[in-house]
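TASK: fixed-backbone design
INPUT:
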């Protein structure tokens, strides 16, 4: 679908320098721009590409003044923030690409399933009984949704998502391919025969609104009650969230992090990749945990930054690391002193 410079400027509340009727139907990087594509310039390191770009429309900051002639085939749309405006357009473009109509006939949908307006269900999906699907939900092929699951408006399940029974997904959530929501928690007890007996996991998992879960991340159902991912949480790929964990609003967690059972993580935390967090502890709001750290105890100080395994305050970690790096030199000095003393 084509959009003119005039339409784009109206959408972004920008002004036009050039041909307001020129149209675009795709996006490009400014250094790779071709005819009928839209690009943007916000980082001045790339300014020289503006003077050679083939892009038909380029979004720039309102304060930008070119230092060389711009190609006659290029129209500028000036806005308050080119980066923010382009991100807005990317979001609109992405929604437009994802927009698909209808329900594929190969999907299995019991009569008890309630389906909202403008829902897309791809091929070979399977639904349990009494599922509720909100308006404008997109469920891509080969996904499974169990009994009694509730899915809010505008949520997206990419191909191969699995949501077990009784789980709840809020409004405007995104689950990427391979996500498993509501699998059993790791609950076993030793028995008299020296084996492990399974503890039934009869709770559920809840995603509040605006949660995004990366590919192949798993969020276990609770033993009792709920595993809860609060509003605005963003989880990267390949994360393990165990049973009865609670993650506070707007916390972000990078890939390959593992969180053991019943741990409570506060609001607005930032957790790096490959972090390990033990169970049954609490992490305060706004805590930052550096990548590859191991957290083995409660962190009660709001806004604390920690690093290391076991993790401790980052200032202490850096001072300790200086000492640690000096150990080989210290050992050489000690060995030299021992040798000198033994020769006396």
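OUTPUT:
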């Amino acid at each position: 679908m084509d959009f003119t410079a005039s339409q784009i400027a109206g959408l972004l509340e920008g002004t036009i320098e050039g041909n307001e009727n020129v149209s675009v139907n795709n996006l490009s990087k400014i250094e790779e721009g071709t005819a009928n594509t839209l690009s943007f310039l916000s980082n001045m390191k790339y300014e020289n590409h503006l003077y050679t770009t083939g892009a038909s429309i380029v979004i720039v900051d309102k304060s930008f003044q070119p230092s060389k002639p711009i190609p006659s085939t290029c129209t500028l749309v000036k806005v308050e923030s080119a980066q923010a405006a382009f991100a807005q357009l990317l979001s609109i473009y992405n929604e437009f690409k994802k927009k698909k109509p209808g329900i594929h006939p190969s999907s299995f949908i019991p009569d008890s399933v309630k389906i909202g307006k403008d829902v897309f269900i791809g091929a070979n999906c399977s639904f349990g009984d009494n599922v509720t699907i909100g308006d404008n939900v997109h469920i891509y092929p080969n996904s499974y949704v169990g009994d009694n699951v509730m899915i809010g408006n505008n949520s997206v399940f990419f191909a191969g998502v699995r949501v077990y029974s009784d789980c709840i997904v809020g409004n405007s959530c995104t689950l990427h391919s391979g996500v498993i929501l509501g699998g059993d928690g790791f609950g076993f007890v030793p028995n008299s025969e020296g084996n492990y007996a399974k503890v039934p996991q009869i709770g559920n998992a809840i995603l509040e609104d605006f949660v995004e879960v990366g590919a192949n991340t798993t969020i276990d159902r609770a033993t009792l009650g709920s595993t809860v991912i609060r509003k605005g949480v963003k989880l990267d790929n390949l994360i393990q969230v165990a049973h009865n964990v609670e993650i506070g609003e707007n916390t972000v967690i990078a890939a390959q992090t593992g969180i053991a059972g019943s741990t409570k993580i506060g609001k607005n935390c930032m957790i790096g990749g490959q972090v390990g967090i033990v169970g049954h502890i609490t992490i305060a709001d706004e805590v930052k945990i550096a990548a590859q750290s191991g957290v083995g105890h409660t962190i009660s100080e709001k806004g604390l930054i920690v690093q290391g395994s076991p993790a401790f305050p980052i200032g202490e970690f850096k001072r300790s690391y200086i000492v640690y790096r000096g150990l080989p030199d210290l050992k050489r000095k000690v060995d030299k002193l021992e040798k000198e003393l033994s020769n006396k």
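COMMENT: The first helix runs from residue 5 to 12.
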